[in-house]
Amino acid sequence: MSVPTVLQKILARKAEEVAERRARVSFAEVEQLARGADAPRGFANAMLERAKSREPAVIAEVKKASPSKGILRENFDPADIARSYEEGGAACLSVLTDVDFFLGSDAYLKEARAACKLPVIRKDFLIDPYQVVEARAIGADCILLIVSALDDVRMAELASVAKDVGLDVLVEVHDAPELERALKTLDTPLVGINNRNLHTFEVSLETTLDLLPEIPRERMVITESGILNRADVELMEVSDVFGFLVGEAFMRAEEPGTELKRLFFPERSKVKLGADPD
């Protein structure tokens, strides 16, 4: 499958960004910062434990904007959002750190992680070992590897660096050929299926359902994009999919954590009749 034009543009800019960052802070300096970072919080374990008990394992996204939708949230406070997600029942956080296309920031990840006890994934377009070590240095517990952005050799290299610095890996696929490459190249238990077609930008939950039979049971599926209502959640759960990555639906809500609870834990959202009003 050819690399979509939008992704090509992002990756070209990302290569420039890595060179700029490396010129400011050397690889050796970033490695030293990574060694001094707080202990990882166990991203994969947090997800797998939820799935074992057949509970929704929600990766809740801290995301200010996207290239296709523009600004998603004007009142953007990563610390407040992180606390709201934790109270709402999220298993983990995802924080966008891409500056040019998603208006993200390394500072947002630091602020979000400091405000809660949840494990955090650095959501970015990783193409270089420098970025992996940098993810650990800024406090991430996990990284995202996007198969459509990497060849197999580089994908394996980045996963190896992640393991060396104590980071978990979530690998993201969009179709069957990418899934085959991911399963062959990486041993991470976390397999994300992005329901958004990167060529057309159309979203279909059928993407997850179609790829499910090809994924070994020892791997955990995380469905990404297109979860908008209870029916979507229930469709996944009856198919034994308990991993979810959700951003836009939460970011557009007044209280992201309340929306998370309403969507994934409706029984916790109901006010108990006869409860004391205090």
Structural class: alpha/beta
Largest sheet: 8 strands, parallel, barrel
Q: Whole-number radius of gyration?
A: 18 Å
Number of self-contained structural domains:
1
Write down the secondary-structure element order.
Answer: HHHEEEHEHEHEHEHEHEHEHHH
Low-confidence stretches: 271-278
Number of strands: 10
Per the principal axes of the C-alpha atoms, what is the gross shape?
globular
Strand order of the largest sheet: 1-4-5-6-7-8-9-10
Description of the molecule:
- This protein is of the alpha/beta class.
- The protein has a single domain (9-265), classed as Alpha-Beta Barrel (TIM Barrel).
- 44% of the residues lie in helices and 16% in strands.
- The protein has 13 helices and ten strands.
- The strands form two sheets. It has an eight-stranded parallel barrel, surrounded by six helices.
- Helix 7 links the parallel strand 6 (142-146) and strand 7 (168-173).
- Helix 2 packs parallel to helix 6 and helix 6 (129-137) packs parallel to helix 7.
- The longest helix is centred in the first third of the chain and has 20 residues, at 5-24.
- It is globular, with a radius of gyration of 18 Å.
- The N and C termini lie far apart (58 Å).
- Mean pLDDT is 94; it is low at 271-278.
